[in-house]
Prior knowledge:
- A seven-stranded mixed beta sheet has the order 7-6-5-8-9-11-10.
- It is elongated, with a radius of gyration of 25 Å.
- The protein is an alpha/beta fold.
- The chain contains 19 helices and eleven strands.
Amino acid sequence: MAKLAGQLVEALEGLLEVPVPVRVQAWDGSVAGPPGAPTLVLRNRRALRRLLWQPGELGLARAYVAGDLEIAPGGDLYEVLSAVGRFADLPQIRTLRLGPRAALGAKGRRALAAVLRAGALGPEPAPPQEEVRKAGGRLHSRSRDRAAISHHYDVGNDFYGLVLGSSMVYSCAYWTPEAKSLEAAQEAKLDLICRKLGLRPGMRLLDVGCGWGSLLLHAARHYGVTAVGVSISEQQVALARSRVEEAGLADRVEVRLQDYREIADGPFDAVSSVGMAEHVGSEQYRIYAEGLYRLLVPGGRLLNHQIARRPDHPGEPHRTSPFIDRYVFPDGELSPVGSTVARLEEAGFEVRDVESLREHYGLTLREWVANLEAHWTEAVRLVGRGRARVWRLYMAASALAFEQNRIGINQVLAVRSTEEGAAGLPPTRGEWLLNPAAGAPRPVAGVPAAAPVDPDLGDRPSVR
């Protein structure tokens, strides 16, 4: 047993015909793998058994969440995830399918012998209790969506407060040069949304998937709107209502426990949907888009802030992350940004602007991970060690996915044009971001004001 790690690494590399990307420390204390690489610690035979039954992402996640797999002391979670991610994206690994011939051939028999020597054969270990047992019924039915949303968002408001900080905004921040903190970057994002929507006093705003009410509060305080927010998370709605009361805005802000498909009291002058559309699903997206279109007045704007996946590799089917689906966002679906734009247009919208905030989300997630790690003892007390590990793993992996362009995030501004075709936006992007009609100007940090135009030149300067 003194050379267990070496036997396991040799058997794995022989089977895959690719060097492993990490060092492995087995439960007998032996270590093997490429020098200088980050080290994973198999704490017991169960860790290896989990990987045998579910090789790849799901097995690794189960072992980590259960505590059977650790990162070596002093190791860097981001470094480990980067190494594993690069390995998984190798063409020979991405398309690998180990059928009976490979498993029963000479290389497969050597790998099996190493597992036997390790004493790791046995029945599949039960998944950690944090793994979701999906609700029955039709995908994206209202009852199943409520169960999926509850799994993720009803973890506890105190826990989310530790992770998100005082802003209580669970979406990508906007890191302008002036934003020196997460809270400042989140305020800049909220203000950017209000500017894009052209909010001004007296308008009526609908925020679909309103979270803990931060955008509602910002829009009511700084833009004088009346606002309705809907969410199907009971804990989110409870805290959002409390925050509205404490802010003295109950006469202008209403928070409802309501599915987006149940909203029937339009019209609204503007609609925001921030980090919600990922839960809608491809089969329901047309219903979602058409419903928001009907709820808007002619000339009203929609700001759809949504995570996007990259298009699939040619000839390869799309695969949903089993870890994300079973531990983080059950039934969540990501689409390429082009598909989202097409569906909004099919519903009747005119898409006027698409802005990628991909790098901003990487920075935001790293801040959330740092918050979680700084309050780790309290987080474990609130939600348990396994769930805290789920959140740490998913947020760190997501930060890298955004940074490495494996997923993106986009704000899509769309308009329900009038019957005459008017969109009602100023002619340039800079003008509608800094529209003085919003009352006292609150310029978006990092966005320069439009240069004044000499009246002798007419409405616009000449274009060279």
